[in-house]
Structure formats: structure tokens, C-alpha cells
Design brief:
alpha/beta; eight-stranded mixed β-sheet; globular
Length: 288
């Protein structure tokens, strides 16, 4: 089985619609794909309606969190999307995205970048506006060559010259809320140092004691020494280890299935979940 547990659609900051994403996942030879848009489940219905036969969809989200001034992302799988407290927190984060993005645009303008809010809004479309949309604008303007190059201290990284804060969950609250909604939590790309500061291993140990299920080890932003260190930490703490693409469509160069999760780990995730269950494809349309 080929299992990719971290992807994004136009419901947040990817370039594939949810329907396109599941069709592309099937074409890439995946057996299981998780749709984990930022702080939203809005793309799930479209993805389910288009799910091709032979592909299983894991519903999820990537929750924006912050601990001691360090931003981190919590992958949440197979939770009840209607659980009111978790739904309310997701809405608070989403509502703060537009004011935050406008502030970042203003900071870029003050740095001499000729970016306009209308350009960012066009790029975001119906998605939850975020830094990747602003980064795409910087690419269009020739300020940086790629989206990844915008996530540096010079521009949009945490603490960067054009960075702005937004409402984010305490990760301990995120673990608690997802657990209460019957879901499973995995800390996303915990060693992605090029994105900015990362939480120390001691914090991951504390999150584990609070109920964290796993860490994402195989990720495009982790080199092999980082992956090995994370696997060792996972063994020490008894955490599950996942691999995934963090696919954003054409916004990044990573391919669907570039990193994958062991089927036994996937099986354990599904066994732990009680809020929702993986959905096997019943033969959605292969073309729009």
C-alpha cells in the first residue's frame, strides 16, 4: 500500500481542487490519501464525491498552533468535524487569516515590495488565505524564485521581516480537542528548521504525555539525519511515525506520494480513531 497522509487543496492553500486532488492521488498510484487543509474541513465533501474506486480518503486538517512563541502545525486525523469546541477553534483561526494576511501585505509594501491585497486575494480564490498565497505573489513579482524561498527570515518565516501573528491554538489544547472529537494527532514536520524555530524535544515529550499520537518523520523539509533523529525520538517516546508529501499542487515541487506512511502505522491510526473512519472510493468521476 502507498499511503500519503498530508495534502492540501484549494480549500486552503493548494492549487488542486479537492476533486482534482483525489483524482491526481489515484493517478499517482496512491492507495490512501489524507486531505489535511489548514484549519478547515471544507474540502472533504467535494473530495468524497469525486473519490475514485481503489483510493481511500482519510479526512483531516492541519491545525495552526503556537508554543512559547514557536509556530507548529498539528495534523489531526479522523475526528468528528461537527464536535462544537474544535469547530469553534478552527473558525477562530480561519477568521484571523484575512487580517493577518493584510498586515503582512502592508509590511511587504513598507519594505518596498509592490504587492497589492487584490493580487493575494486573486491567488487565494475561495481558499483560506495564508502565507503560501502571499509567497506566490512574491514569485509572480520576481521577488523570490520559488514559494519556499519566501519562507525565510528576510520575508515570511516566523519572526521574519514581513511576518505577522494570528490566532493559533495551544498545541496541548489541540491534542485535547482532537482527542475529545475522536481523532488522532501527529505533529507535522517537527524538524523543519528552514521554516524557522522548532520546538525542542522536551516539548514533544510533554505533548506525548498529554496524548500526542505521532510525529511526521519523512517530510520534504527533513534531511536524512533529521529523519533518523526523529525516528529515535519516536522509539524513545512510543510515538507513531508517518511520512507524507505535504502536497500543495503546483505551489511546491513535491509530488504526491513522495514520502509515504508504513501500512502498519496507518492501521494503528485508524484503530485509534473513533470520530470518523477512512472512506473507500466507490468510483467517483475520473474527469471533471
Amino acid at each position: 500500500m502507498r499511503i500519503d497522509l498530508h495534502t492540501h487543496s484549494t480549500a486552503s492553500d493548494g492549487t488542486d481542487t479537492p476533486a482534482e486532488l483525489v483524482r491526481n492521488a489515484a493517478a499517482a498510484g496512491l492507495d490512501v490519501v489524507a486531505l489535511t487543509d489548514h484549519d478547515t474541513v471544507r474540502g472533504h465533501a467535494e473530495a468524497l464525491a469525486a473519490l475514485p474506486e481503489g483510493l481511500t480518503l482519510v479526512t483531516g486538517a492541519e491545525l495552526s498552533c503556537r508554543l512559547d512563541g514557536v509556530g507548529l502545525h498539528m495534523l489531526a486525523y479522523l475526528f468528528d468535524p461537527d464536535e462544537p469546541e474544535l469547530a469553534r477553534e478552527r473558525e477562530l483561526v480561519r477568521d484571523d487569516r484575512v487580517p493577518r494576511a493584510r498586515t503582512m501585505v502592508r509590511k511587504l509594501q513598507e519594505l518596498g515590495v509592490p504587492v497589492e491585497w487584490e493580487q493575494v486575494a486573486r491567488i487565494a480564490g475561495d481558499g483560506s488565505v495564508g502565507r503560501p498565497h502571499i509567497a506566490t505573489a512574491l514569485v509572480e513579482l520576481g521577488v523570490v524564485p520559488t514559494v519556499s524561498d519566501a519562507f525565510t527570515p528576510q520575508w515570511l518565516a516566523d519572526g521574519g521581516r514581513a511576518h505577522a501573528e494570528k490566532h493559533e491554538l495551544d498545541p496541548f489544547d489541540a491534542v485535547r480537542l482532537v482527542k475529545a472529537a475522536g481523532g488522532v494527532t501527529v505533529l507535522a514536520h517537527p524538524a523543519a528548521v528552514k521554516r524557522g524555530n522548532v520546538v525542542p524535544e522536551s516539548a514533544i515529550a510533554e505533548l506525548t504525555a498529554a496524548g500526542l499520537d505521532g510525529i511526521e518523520t519523512d517530510h520534504m523539509d527533513h534531511d536524512e539525519p533529521a529523519r533518523a533523529a526523529l525516528r529515535g525520538l519516536a522509539r524513545e517516546l512510543g510515538l507513531l511515525t508517518t511520512g507524507s508529501s505535504d502536497y500543495h499542487g503546483s505551489r511546491k515541487t513535491v509530488r504526491l506520494g513522495e514520502n509515504v506512511t508504513d501500512p502498519e502505522i496507518y492501521g494503528e491510526i485508524t484503530r485509534r480513531a473513533t470520530g470518523a473512519f477512512p472512506v473507500p472510493g466507490a468510483g467517483g468521476p475520473l474527469t471533471p
